Amino acid sequence: MDTTWILFVTPILLCTLIFYCRNKLSLKLKSKHRNQLPLGTLGLPFIGETIEFVSCAYTDRPESFMNKRRAMYGKVFKSHIFGSPTIVSTDADVNKFILQSDAKLFVPSYPKSLMKLMGESSILLINGTLQRRIHGLIGAFFKSQQLKIQITTDMEKYVQESMANWKEDQPIYIQDETKKIAFYVLVKALISLDPGEEMELLKKHFQEFISGLMSLPINLPGTKLYQSLQAKRKMAKLVRKTIEARRNKGITEVPKDVVDVLLNDTSERLTDDLIADNIIDMMIPGEDSVPVLMTLATKYLSECPAALQQLTVRHVSM
């Protein structure tokens, strides 16, 4: 599960590493700065190149957007995606330099639609002592032996239940199956919710919510962002219901999930709304990051019997 949180933002990066540089590097296109910008195009007014970027993500060649521009402009180029002028880097050395700059030269940000959906209290957007406090509390819990045992037990249970419904004469879509299992395991670790009607309702709202993470920042009825915000409000209502029930029950000495961990903290800044928002944010890895990794692991292990045998022996011995 540690990998889950390391890859927290993977679903929103799609094809490459995109930085919204708000400090030393600015995309305010004043004449005196034009010669400092990489080559590229900003596309249509407001929309920019968002439509083509998103369209490529739904094809069998999602990297084509980047490859086309890299061939035309080089490994680092300018664009305009999701309502913001953007510099895109597909160069490993450039990305390494930025990641190691410790936010002194480059300040990472996110698309406007994502910031709107995450909310101001999201662990992705808050900083300072509060961010460190939340990260520390959750990180310690996810490294606990107690949770590792619970996750192992739950995962085995959900895999067996899933396999019981498989039929020999029908194809099995591993990524879909792992996505469902990963979501169940994550939600159980976050709010101790078991599969059932309430889980399916939460999953339905979550699918509507996550579909707007990469959308144009237009919050009007009928738009994807508007629909996603409505879905998040419904999710937050379900999560707050759990939080309120726990508050009424009182503090538990041994937390069984992330809600307990955050409620047990004495900080008055950890409000119910903040906890609910961050619980929802932490469901995101169950959508793509973990399922993709598990699908690839299944594929490559099935193609390498020796590696599968070694893994099986190690697993049995643990």
TrEMBL record:
Does Metal-binding count among this protein's keywords? yes
What InterPro entries is this protein classified in? Cyt_P450, Cyt_P450_sf
Superkingdom: Eukaryota
Q: Which residues cross the membrane?
A: 6-25
Task: Return one Gene Ontology term, BP aspect.
Answer: brassinosteroid homeostasis
The record's annotation in Gene3D superfamilies points to: Cytochrome P450
Q: Which Pfam families match?
A: p450
Tell me the keywords, alphabetical order: Iron, Membrane, Metal-binding, Transmembrane, Transmembrane helix
A single GO molecular function, which one? iron ion binding
Concerning PANTHER family, the annotation shows: 3-EPI-6-DEOXOCATHASTERONE 23-MONOOXYGENASE CYP90D1 (PTHR24286:SF30), CYTOCHROME P450 26 (PTHR24286)
Similarity comment: Belongs to the cytochrome P450 family.
Please state what the protein is called.
Answer: Cytochrome P450
- Organism ancestry: Eukaryota, Viridiplantae, Streptophyta, Embryophyta, Tracheophyta
